[in-house]
Amino acid sequence: MTDHIPDQTGRTIVVTGANSGLGLHTSTALAAKGARVLMACRSPERGAAAVKEVGGAAELVVLDLSDLASVREAAARIRELTGDAVDVLVNNAGVMATPRSSTADGFELQLGTNHLGHAALTWLLMPALRTRPGARVVTVSSLLHRRGAFDVDDPNFERRRYDAWVAYGQSKTANLLFAFELDRRARAAGLDLTSVAVHPGLSDTELMGNTMRSRGARLLAPVATTFIKVMGQPARRGALPSLHAVTAPDVQGGQFWGPDGFQQMRGNPKIVHALPHATDPAVAARVWDLTAKLTGVTPDPA
Questions:
Q1: Active site residue 162
Q2: What is the per-residue pLDDT across 252-269, written as a single tens digit (0 to 9) for each?
Q3: Which of the residues 97, 151, 179, 296 could staple to 197 if both were Cys, CB 3.0 to 4.6 A apart?
Q4: For the chain, how far is it from start to end, CA to CA, in angstroms?
Q5: What is the pLDDT averaged over residues 16-23?
Q6: Cβ-based neighbour number of residue 62 at 10 Å
Q7: Which helix (H) or strand (E) covers residue 237, if one does?
Q8: Distance between CA atoms of 21 and 207, rounded to whole angstroms?
Q9: How many CA atoms lie within 13 A of 84 on its CB side?
Q10: Do residues 181 and 288 touch, judged by C-beta distance below 8 A?
């Protein structure tokens, strides 16, 4: 399935959430093609085990996206390790439908982890991305962006009743809005950088099982994972849209890639379309500015 990926020798690629699921398969495939892969993982122990499993030119960077101090430290470490030369950033890590909780900085956990942490990391790594011709930022969203538009006035559910799936949908909508806005601003600034979004369809990763367990539904976890195995696809196939976005020459900025099968749940990568609430430039600009305010990170490009 990955035989078509061109040689990646000489490219440095950062993958968040790289110790399991989509991130691990993405890292493995890219390292096998010769890339230097910086595997950004929250757990040093699990990260080290994953780096050993991937082999090749894989290296560990500790990153907790739910803590902006950790994001800043990881970005500085990546810039130091690479000499400010990163070819691709894959914003892959995420949490899904968690019980209401907050990040280290007080943000709703899914918004903070899935969107704010990744946006901050992207901006902080822009000096390293700017130096590389044809640099790419690949942001992993979800089919479930359909579950939640972005509420700019109440992003942390301080006034709204908290709904875990709506919050997840909002965070995945934020991923799309950010990816498309980054593309618009990079083109306006004349940067040689491609920003593209992807989604993995219905993929058999740890996310659903973790979600069931975190919500006290341990008995439903096997049912959910069985459903995904039957209707969806293995994680190695779920990683194909990300791998295509990282490596294929036909990828253009502002695109959204996902599976080509029934209801985009499984299949080979193709261009798909997000719902209007995730593509509105006016909303994207507001989310961009709000993200800068909440994270305290200066947007790049401005």
A1: no
A2: 999 999 999 999 999 999
A3: 179
A4: 39
A5: 97
A6: 15
A7: helix 235-238
A8: 8
A9: 5
A10: yes
